[in-house]
Amino acid sequence: MASSREAAAQRALEQEDLLNTLLAERDGLLSVLDRVLALNGTARLIRDAAAADAGFVADVADGGNAVIRWLAGNRTDSLQDLEVPRGQGVGGRVLALGTPVRVSDYITARSITHQFDGPVRREAMGAMLAVPILDSSSGVPRTVAVAYAALRGPGEFGDGAVQAVEEVAVDAARALRLADRAKAGQRTAVAAERQRMQASLHDSVGAMLFSIGAQVRDLRSTLPDNPVLRTQLGRLESDVSAASRALREALLALNDASPERALPIELAEHCRSFEARTGVAARFIQLGDVRPLDVERTTLLISAVREGLLNAEKHAEAGTVVVSLGEIDGGVQVAVADDGMVRDCGEDTSGTGLGIRLLAEKAARLGGRVSLVHDEDGGTTLRMMLPGSGRTS
Question: DSSP letter at 312?
């Protein structure tokens, strides 16, 4: 029995590690491929549209700087992977202004900074044009990439060239939007795979551990008075409990890896996990629509529910647990209420790694609050309220 228990816990941990590794590799690869496919050929189109000697595209990274990734007509690798901060050079000025910028001679132009004169000289570039590739899907135009065209030697890019490159930029922006939608679809598929894996672990390993624990408890209650055997059964029950905790952490890790999922779905799954693990009925109730929150608030509310369920499991001897989610006073509140009798009211900071006091401190930094109330006639309610925030991106 002990070997089966250890094997079950090990299987849960190994599956979680393998899934995390494979999904991380898949996410990274598909993200890169989507971006490459979206902008593949754009540099050549820019060069041809502007009748230029060279065309290149800089992708705007998460930090806000542009990085030149795709080139056509280049003679050296001096511009490849060159990082262009906001405000620097032609591309950095585009990032700052959000409008096209052109110079007749890059090296002598007074309207730009000259941190990149060396790479530009090595390419013998003179006249240069940079145009923002804009994403306007949110209603506010945002530069997501920069399109460049360059002539070798002095020259001029007229209004026609600017318009031609802007048209290429519009097509590139559309391709990037499609890539972002594909990426969102990948995240949805990843979340579904994690949910499937979590359900599989619940139904197999979790059910087996619960069954073993129940049989051990039944044996302890029905066996004749035998101190040695009772001690051995007590140790076995403790081992089963430890294996259940290992499984719980593996299941929580699956949830941790998908913060983009809707908060109600996360909370409902935690109730399901609690019920499968403990045999105690757990219900999730959503009290009206809840606006999407940023990742920090979402994660903190989920942590509060984990802590409330853990307290109910360890201290309450509850028959029923109810988790609720709703908007209140312009913010969002979660509550975990059980009908058990509290055996130990002391705060516990182990469990999920966030005790009541740590939860309260984190909530306070966001302008929220946490309360833990023990009812006189039995039962405990943990509440967390956080003020609202913007939608997740």
Answer: I
